[in-house]
Amino acid sequence: xxxxxxxxxxxxxxxxxxxxxxxxxxxxxxxxxxxxxxxxxxxxxxxxxxxxxxxxxxxxxxxxxxxxxxxxxxxxxxxxxxxxxxxxxxxxxxxxxxxxxxxxxxxxxxxxxxxxxxxxxxxxxxxxxxxxxxxxxxxxxxxxxxxxxxxxxxxxxxxxxxxxxxxxxxxxxxxxxxxxxxxxxxxxxxxxxxxxxxxxxxxxxxxxxxxxxxxxxxxxxxxxxxxxxxxxxxxxxxxxxxxxxxxxxxxxxxxxxxxxxxxxxxxxxxxxxxxxxxxxxxxxxxxxxxxxxxxxxxxxxxxxxxxxxxxxxxxxxxxxxxxxxxxxxxxxxxxxxxxxxxxxxxxxxxxxxxxxxx
Amino acid sequence: xxxxxxxxxxxxxxxxxxxxxxxxxxxxxxxxxxxxxxxxxxxxxxxxxxxxxxxxxxxxxxxxxxxxxxxxxxxxxxxxxxxxxxxxxxxxxxxxxxxxxxxxxxxxxxxxxxxxxxxxxxxxxxxxxxxxxxxxxxxxxxxxxxxxxxxxxxxxxxxxxxxxxxxxxxxxxxxxxxxxxxxxxxxxxxxxxxxxxxxxxxxxxxxxxxxxxxxxxxxxxxxxxxxxxxxxxxxxxxxxxxxxxxxxxxxxxxxxxxxxxxxxxxxxxxxxxxxxxxxxxx
Amino acid sequence: xxxxxxxxxxxxxxxxxxxxxxxxxxxxxxxxxxxxxxxxxxxxxxxxxxxxxxxxxxxxxxxxxxxxxxxxxxxxxxxxxxxxxxxxxxxxxxxxxxxxxxxxxxxxxxxxxxxxxxxxxxxxxxxxxxxxxxxxxxxxxxxxxxxxxxxxxxxxxxxxxxxxxxxxxxxxxxxxxxxxxxxxxxxxxxxxxxxxxxxxxxxxxxxxxxxxxxxxxxxxxxxxxxxxxxxxxxxxxxxxxxxxxxxxxxxxxxxxxxxxxxxxxxxxxxxxxxxxxxxxxxxxxxxxxxxxxxxxxxxxxxxxxxxxxxxxxxxxxxxxxxxxxxxxxxxxxxxxxxxxxxxxxxxxxxxxxxxxxxxxxxxxxxxxxxxxxxxxxxxxxxxxxxxxxxxxxxxxxxxxxxxxxxxxxxxxxxxxxxxxxxxxxxxxxxxxxxxxxxxxxxxxxxxxxxxxxxxxxxxxxxxxxxxxxxxxxxxxxxxxxxxxxxxxxxxxxxxxxxxxxxxxxxxxxxxxxxxxxxxxxxxxxxxxxxxxxxxxxx
Lengths: 358, 282, 538
Hints:
- The complex is a heterotrimer.
- By secondary structure, chain A is an all-alpha fold.
- Helices cover 70% and strands 2% of the residues of chain A.
- Chain A is built from 14 helices and 4 strands.
- Chain A has a two-stranded antiparallel ribbon with strand order 1-4. In chain A, strands 2-3 form a two-stranded antiparallel ribbon.
- Chain A is globular.
- Chain A starts with 8 loop residues before the first helix and ends with a helix.
- In chain B, helix 3 (131-138) packs parallel to helix 6 and helix 5 (155-167) runs antiparallel to helix 6 (183-197).
- In chain B, strands 6-7-8-3-9-10 form a 6-stranded mixed sheet, sandwiched between helices.
- In chain B, helix 7 links the parallel strand 7 and strand 8 (231-235).
- Helices cover 70% and strands 5% of the residues of chain C.
- The N and C termini of chain C lie far apart (111 Å).
- Chain C folds into 3 domains: 2-120, no CATH class; 135-224, no CATH class; 256-528, ABC transporter involved in vitamin B12 uptake, BtuC, CATH 1.10.3470.
- Chain C has 19 helices and 7 strands.
């Protein structure tokens, strides 16, 4: 496993820092609040959230940086995974909701439903939820990819229909009839696997889980990019027709990578939702998907560690700016897009590489 | 074990291989050549928006043959290759690989996997991969995702790539990104990639554009040595090169306005009145 | 001395005359006030009498008052005991004095009280009002009155109609009279008469006729005439459906024509430069906001405001477009995906800029009077004029663009660059200049689309986002480089959207259209009318 990171200085730094965080943060958190080194639980959750977004960024880097598909709808897979986990968490509320109905969630009672819709069945089991977290995004990615790649839609047209896909999902999830909370979404979660979501210990555990997921996700992605398959992926990005003429089933390879990336994104979403406490259809909005692209672009495309770095940094900036200078955030975000495409196409990783060779 | 030796006469860059056996067609490329014809192209026609690009074209390539195809610009040479390799669909006609493989029913990857390899007019290498990786990808191997994920380089494969690197003169540039190569070097890399594919039928489109005389000679030698185990179709403009290549009675086909104008040895073709008219004008 | 006396007499006489005249008019006003107050104080029975005598004195005003009472819009101010017309009795509403039209703002709801009527008064007044209308001077007034009472009459009204029928000369009014009468004769004992009535009602298009016929089926389930009536019911329902679908298509066309405008700008920039401009929606939004600003600057000339707004929006959005092209896009040629990202950033910046300059809230843009109104084709189909204007407007702009592209030198150069840039350059076309102008043209058209949109929907910083996806769909569906493709695509998408709406709801219909396009792209990846040529984008 360590051999994977042989040529990957950035990766070593990233994973090293994550391992350090896993060890150090619980210690700092346990310090008394009066201590200046105390790491508040609030920050733990915030960091955990960033790490799940970093995993999402990894999935996008795989599909965009390496495979060359500008996906404008990856947040859809993230949101689907989040909804799957959200459904489990909703079932866990049991009869502690406002309407105190053990079977039906509050919004269902509100809508006057008599029984649990068929697709909610089974979500009281954790393993079902985890299965769905991976399966649902995978199925959507498979269906979409099968149709799109087989018909050789590419370039800008492909990007546009990925955006249409997530937009359509957003509209669909807004409807109350979908049975998933309508525009309010799913929220008010109480506990996960029996542990209260409000407790510090659970929050710490979720943070650690996010870090571990990011490490595993990174290693898996690195495995793919290092392998011969990874070379073919880059070949497809740079000269798709040529790769075809070499005998490679380009559609299939694209499909595999796309589906895998969707599952990663779904997993990220599943870890995101218990830390944030709510999932609503806004998560599907095209803006969310496109934001991920800026994280990857700023960090450095086709580096993997750049994507993770970019995600963490920009979301940190976002948290800061939306509180202190809310008017400014969108200007900054927009400006970043323009800046990174015009001036810094290799992202920060590119800068670091140049510095390294000097 | 390889039976390949490079001549010590480096100045003339001559290749006198005792055999390019390691590049022999992949045993997976089984083609039925009971009637010794490898490629049937019959009554092929295609028109693009009113312009008849290929007009009732007939072409038969024997197994192991080295065929040169010449013709003025716009004659349809590249279009013909496009149809054979699956990029363009014809309006009518048949294209058969051996007795049983209908190429018109297959798409590009399937045709390549069946044993048809192509070198393009404009060198298209994978710019962001190293020369070495370019060859690795071209190498004959299982092409499905799972195998690619777990593929490990065997010592034999390693040696093969090495030898091809030497053959194409890019041994020192093995780790360089293909995008940084010169035009001529890219041409060679493409030739190397084509070799690695170990195809049964090689379609080579203008291989010597931009090459020096020495490189041209080298290319001609290489292609001639491939014939026999492989079948090669070479499309070219350069008459000198074609003369060299077809030396020894090999067939040359002249393509004009989408169909075969004349066919025969270089001498026969050059003396043909119709050919003279087309090339020299009226 | 006699002259002096004469002058005195005349002055006196004049003075007396004036006094008498003044008294007379005062007496007139005095009478009116008296009458008003009598009405206010009167009990229900007396009100009928009062209105009857008012009718004799001043028919027009009496009818007006009766109508107001029927609509519960007649009130009096407790303070001055005068009659007022009030449409909505809440504080801040406007009250108009009946006698002289003076307007007063209502401070408290308790300041006024309604002049109420009971059911008997209602029927009496109604009879009076309708009778008067049926005898109106203008035939269209008579027609309107007759149409309004089909299926909704009293025996007295029937009698009135029967009486007036003999004197009626206008054909359409006569036909309406007959329909009114037919509803009654549906129940006659003479079968022939019934058949005649059924036929009359069945051939007409009024919803009231349908009701009368379906009512007949319910009242006489065993009647021999049932098949005949059923047949006509089906016939009318068929016509209703037909006109409904015509209306849907009309709505679809108006929505579609706006989509055409919105998409055309994108098709032009993509066709020529291969650039997908994610800030396109914001250029539309800027056009809409320009309209708003124009209206703010000329509040007294709303009628002219749109005519000024169109070129203004074209210039403003066009200028912004040229800025974007020269400032950002120019450096990203050959990299369409990067351009997509960069322009997305620009769209965010533009949105936030508008939000900061104006406000995050929606702004309202007025519709000029000459655009309001309804065209009634028949009782089942009314077309709003504003939509008609929008359709015509969009088609005009489309044809203008087509002319520019096909007939002007600029258009020729644009087409040349789009088909083969290098060739065009070698022929002396300054392709960078063309790029800037083309982008400006596309942006300008987007601005003009914004003007049209401002009449259909709310103007806010986010409105661009709603239309960017639609614009994309139009371009993707219609293909690029062919303006007709955009026209067909936009119109059909608009119509498709509206057709699906009543069946699937606004949201689901949008979803379905998106899914359809995703599937369509599989079959025809380059759209309905793909671009041709070696450099064709696809």
